[in-house]
Every structure is written in C-alpha cells, then in structure tokens.
Amino acid sequence: MRQRHLFTRTQKQAPRDEVTKNAELLIRAGFIYKEMAGVYAYLPLGLRVIEKIKQIIRDEMNALGGQEITMTSMQRKDLWQKTDRWDDDVVDIWFKSTLKNGTDVGLAWSHEEPITDMMKSFIHSYKDVPVFVYQFQTKLRNELRAKSGILRGREFIMKDMYSYTANEQEHESFYNKTKEAYMNVFNRVGLGGNTFITFASGGAFTEFSHEFQTITDAGEDTIYINREKNIAINEEVLSDTMLADLGVSRDELEKVKTAEVGNIFNFGTAKCQQLGLTITDERGEMIPVHLGSYGIGITRLMGTIVELFHDADGIMWPESVAPFQLHLISLLQDSTDHAEELYKRLVDAGVDVLYDDRDIRPGEKFKDADLIGIPHRVVVSEKTVETEKLEYSHRTATREKSMISFEQLTQRIQ
RNA sequence: CGGGGUGUAGUAUACCGGUAGUACGCUUGGUUUGGGACCAAGUAGACUGAGUUCGAUUCUCAGCACCCCGACCA
C-alpha cells in the first residue's frame, strides 16, 4: 500500500474529548473515527488490525472444531421472553425496535437464545452433537455510559462461540480445551504475560465462570492475582471459602486493575430446556443439551493492546496484529526509482508493506511512522542508495539502525 | 440512572456585552529536506432555541451533544 493513497491522515493534536490512550492514539493515527459516544468506525488501518485479530481467533476456534457462521442482528421477542430476558428490568441494555406491521424486534446484544432456537432445526439426536459454532458479530448494547474509547462501546465487534454437548463430561472437556485455546489467542496477540484466567460470577446457572482479564489501568475490573500460583479472582466473588479452596491467603494476593478481554460461561442445561432443545439418547429417551458460551471482544482486545503497547510517540503493535508488517520510508527527492524498485521486490516477496512515498519532509514521515506503530522499518535515502544493504530498525528502538540484506529482512519479518 | 464538567474553523485553543485572535491543517507561489521547516498570500468558526439587552459568541434558562466520577456490566 502506498501511503500517498492511504485515505486517512494522522493528526498532531489529541482530540479533546478522549482521555484514554487507546482512543487518543487510534484516532490520531487514523485507525478509527468516532461517530458518537461509544460508537466508532474502523478505517483501513484499523480494519486491518481487526482482521488480523479475527484470523488468529479463527485459527484457534477452527482447531477446536468450531465452525463459523453469521447470525442476524434482528432478533425475535418471543425467544427472549421464553427465557425471561426480554424485559428491560432484567436486561437493561436492550435496543429494541418495531416493524411496520407492529412486531417487536430486539437488536442483538448476545445470541444464546436465537442460536439455541435455531439448533432445534438441526440437533435431534445424540448423534448430532457435539456442535461448536462461532461468529464475529457486531453487538449492540445500550450502555448507560460508554467509556474508555473502544474498551466499552455501545456497538462493538465480538467473537461468540456456542457449544452444544450431550452431557456434563463432554461439556467440561470442551470448556477446558476452549480455556487453553483462549490463552493461545491472548499469547498470540501479545497479551499473554498480562492476561489471567480469572474466577468470576457464574450467574444463575453455575457457580463460577472464567474471565480472561488483562492487566491495564484503563480497565474497569479489579481482580486479585498470585503470579507464582497463577491464580486470579475477580473481586466480585472473592471470599474466604474460595481462598481456602484455592490454597492462598489474602496477603499473598496482588490487587490489579484489568480489562476483561474474554469470558467463558456454562449455561448447563437450563437454557436449552427453556427453549425446548432436547435430543434423544441411545435408548430413545429425551435428554437435555448442555450449552456453553464463549466470548472475546475483538475491538476491546484491540484497544487493550494499544493500552499496553505504546510510548510517548505512538503505538507499538505486536507483529501478529500490526496493520502492516513493514513500513518502507523513502527520503529520496528527485529520483525515487530505488525505493520504487525495493517496494516492488517486497510486494513480490509477499511482504505486507506500507510504503511512504509521500513528498514531505523526513521528520514528518518518522513521526507518522512512530504514531502508526508498524514494527519493522526500512529507510531508503541518498545514504543508502549506493549500498546493497537496507537500513533497518524496529519500532521499539528506532534509533538502533542496522544494515541488513534483503534476505535478512524477509527472514526477520516471517 | 445520580453527581461534576465542557461545547468557538477540519483539529487544538484565546479574548470579549459592541459580530472573533493564534497554532496546526488545507490551497497557491518560493526557499528547504535524516526526527512534525521557513517566508508570502489565501481558506475556514461561536451546538440549537428562548429570554435579558439598543446590541449576546459572551449573561440567564431550556434542549442537544461530548467527557469524567459513581452505579451498572448476564
């Protein structure tokens, strides 16, 4: 991609209304555009990051046996009434609307009810399960207060997966595999060291759920962790009984602020029973189905990554989710043939490169590159034209330049 | 939803009861070119409505929007 043609531009000034770093940097660098409070558009750079994150998650979910689908944003009132979750007093974040013919519809804030109802058309026998399906979907939640940039929006992208299994053991097995897959995701996007599997409230169906909590001051949650024992507990459920069960004392725990980047939840058989999803077992008898629900907030994850990986000059994307692998910066004035040729070679070699071919001063190019935060950087200038080597640096240490060959560069990027 | 705050150009800001100044951006010309250059000439603005007043961007009220703290977060 030629930066000359990238339609977004960077801004020097931080927007007055944004306090959090994720919002400030993503807006300044041109990744996102704020439409209204808690509602952001994703521009070419931002969309690239979203797609990188989605692909990593897709890999991991497919490895679990998940199959991707897309449900609808408009949902039926009667399904949510069956589980007593239509009432605004029960679920206070509903967006609702009415069709021309008078039918009430809800706008998707979650999908357990419609997806479980849909399963009645496809799951009839113990032979039809397990089923693991997932989707990437825009969720709409009428939050009383949106905050912290893209960490808590009214419209956001979520990966949600649902498991339908025949019994508790099968559910447990998949639940535990998902727990591992989720940690794989967070490791791969660079959050591994700061993300803890946390005991949290299980709601009406089960004693506990598990949240994936990433340490950041921009987060809204508070959890207690013990790094050596790898124990984490949401303060909502912290109790003496739980501490005794886990074999830790209060003074061994560290209190940290976190953002909830993922959540896995066991609904047991209750939800399927309410909605009438049952299967026949080997003996032909009707048995209930176990439902598990597994979410990752894609856009929140993106914001959390920015909160963790930035410095005074801008974002420092982990390589796995960076919008481009390489930032090629040309400082050549009159003859740009050398840079053009290198750009073509890189593209031909399959490198995802943002090529700064703009006719502006070097300082501006460097500042923009730091702000956008692409990890690998190569600078072409009068100094480097004569040599066969490339001037290379990394976003985390832009002053540490080294001269490397084209082959060395492509190796580093892979 | 309770509390607090803020609305001036594309962005960030200043002053003022007598119709608005600066910086960045953008346009044109010239000089520059390894960390957001310089000169010149342009471009573009008071959230909406009502009230007070000879006169309101400024004061008052209402609405709307945005931000922060709390509450909420299945």
Automatic annotation (TrEMBL):
Catalyzed reactions per annotation: tRNA(Pro) + L-proline + ATP = L-prolyl-tRNA(Pro) + AMP + diphosphate
Aminoacyl-transfer RNA synthetases class-II family profile domain ranges (all copies): 38-318
GO biological process: prolyl-tRNA aminoacylation
Record-level Gene Ontology MF annotations: ATP binding; proline-tRNA ligase activity
EC number per UniProt: 6.1.1.15
InterPro entries: aa-tRNA-synt_IIb, aa-tRNA-synth_II, aa-tRNA-synth_II/BPL/LPL, Anticodon-bd, Anticodon-bd_dom_sf, Pro-tRNA-ligase_IIa, Pro-tRNA_synthetase, ProRS_anticodon_short
Protein name: Proline--tRNA ligase
Protein species of origin: Candidatus Magasanikbacteria bacterium CG10_big_fil_rev_8_21_14_0_10_47_10
